[in-house]
Amino acid sequence: MTPADLSFDQRHIWHPYTSMTQPLPVYPVISAHECTLKLNDGTPLVDGMSSWWAAIHGYNHPRLNQAMKQQIDSMSHVMFGGITHPPAVDLCRKLVAITPEELECVFLADSGSVAVEVAMKMALQYWQARGEKRHRFLTLGGGYHGDTTGAMSVCCPKNSMHSLWQGYLAEQIFAPAPTCRFDDEWNEHDIVPFARLMAGNRQDIAAVILEPIVQGAGGMRFYHPQWLRQIRRMCDREGILLIADEIATGFGRTGKLFACEHAGITPDILCLGKALTGGTMTLSATLTTRHVAETISDGEAGCFMHGPTFMGNPLACAVASESLSLLENNDWQQQVARIEQQLQAGLTPLAKEPLVADVRVLGAIGVVETHYPVKMAELQRFFVEQGVWIRPFGRLIYLMPPYIISTQELDKLIAAITAAVTHPEFFSQ
Ligand code: PMP
Fold first, then answer.
1. pLDDT confidence of residue 166
2. Ligand 1 centroid, distance to 246 Cα (angstroms)
3. Most buried residue among 19, 109, 308, 374 by CB atoms closer than 10 A?
4. Which residues are registered as beta bridge partners of 23?
């Protein structure tokens, strides 16, 4: 990439959450292989982000590449209305097999946010079909579910700046974020406000929507599995649907194939995305029970009212299917357990640093929470100089590496964070 390419980028191209007048610097990546991103000038960076938690097998995996090449040679896309194809059937068969038995019906869409929209629409249509006007969602503070408008309405109002969208977003019901952490002793009081909100709004709530166990982009917090068990019980008691957004947690990231397994619960609707295709292409899946699917289908509309142009894209389905096989062959449990151990050993000692507020690790997720927000551009540059790709946000410096990362590579990522948190100049105090 030439300097002209970079200045064109700066002048004309939006990047995620950046300003067009004061854009943050971007780094030109020209290729990626296994756990390494290669910059334009040849600098290799060890990747600690898995490209926003998706590239679980690393980059340029020969089996994923092969699956895509083979699929391209037969067809990269065909409409899904009135047509089906082997990649979609193969993938959905696998998804139905690896998720809880009750989740039988799969809706394929383009991205995580759309999977959440689909899940919310399923819940709304479910109640409509039953002749009940239920149009609100109960959720947890500190949550994140995507950037489309339905998904935004259930994101934590603080983090997603609901004030910007006042009068536009649907008004949902927010319970305080869980405070009882994953490893804490269970504290019954933690869930009382949630229970009260559910009881007080039981006639209006179509579904509870939450990220099971790990609240990701809303704060990288890990909460107690008892929360999930009790919510499942409350939902059952009230006949309210439970939507689990496993877009970030699915496919082994937390040490279980799906985070709901930490609590032994099954949601009525499950959203999957991100790592579904091993980080190669955009695809999501929303799974539900036959009961929900049939209720919707027997309702006034006679069908589920959603059908995106690129639904069931064969190329994405083919690579997702191969990614699931790879996950199984690679013994992901062992990979994630090894990463967890190394993150525990490497990051936990940072808790005593004056700039560090908290360190937490679950599965292949390591989080260092600092007392002050990071100075993004400066800290990013520092990480690149250290030869690593780590993208912090707010007061959070975290690692979610590809599962194939080597001990040496992970050491390098941990060393870079260790160095960063001893430099006050990287933080806005
Ligand atoms: N839900 C969760 C839990 C997520 O972490 C994300 C993405 N960070 C989304 C939904 C939205 O997914 P996408 O960015 O693919 O639209």
1. 81
2. 9
3. 109
4. none
**Cβ pair 37, 389 in contact under 8 A:** yes
Residues 3-60+331-426: name the CATH superfamily: Aspartate Aminotransferase, domain 1 (3.90.1150.10)
How far is 316 from 93, CA to CA, in rounded Å? Answer: 15
Q: Does residue 162 register a pLDDT over 90?
A: no
Ligand 1, atom nearest to 52 Cα: 8
Residues with a CB atom less than 6 Å from ligand 1: 111-113, 116, 144-146, 211, 216-217, 245, 247-248, 273
CB-based contact 226:186 (threshold 8 Å): yes
**374 CA distance to ligand 1 centroid (A)?**
22
pLDDT digits (tens, 9 = 90+) for 69-79: 999 999 999 99
Question: Could you state, in order of their start, the residue ranges of all structural domains in the chain?
Answer: 3-60+331-426, 74-329
Residues in the chain: 429
Threshold 0.90, pTM exceeds: yes
d(CA 38, CA 394): 26
Distances (CA, A) of 285 to 122, 177, 268, 392: 13, 26, 14, 28
CATH class belonging to 74-329: alpha beta
Of 98 and 158, the structure prediction assigns the larger pLDDT to 98
> What is the 145 CA–ligand 1 centroid distance (Å)?
5
Mind telling me the catalytic residues? 17, 144, 245, 274
Element (H, E) at 70: helix 62-74
pLDDT at site 67: 98
Q: What is the mean pLDDT of residues 23-41?
A: 96
Cα 137 to Cα 123: distance, rounded to the nearest angstrom: 9
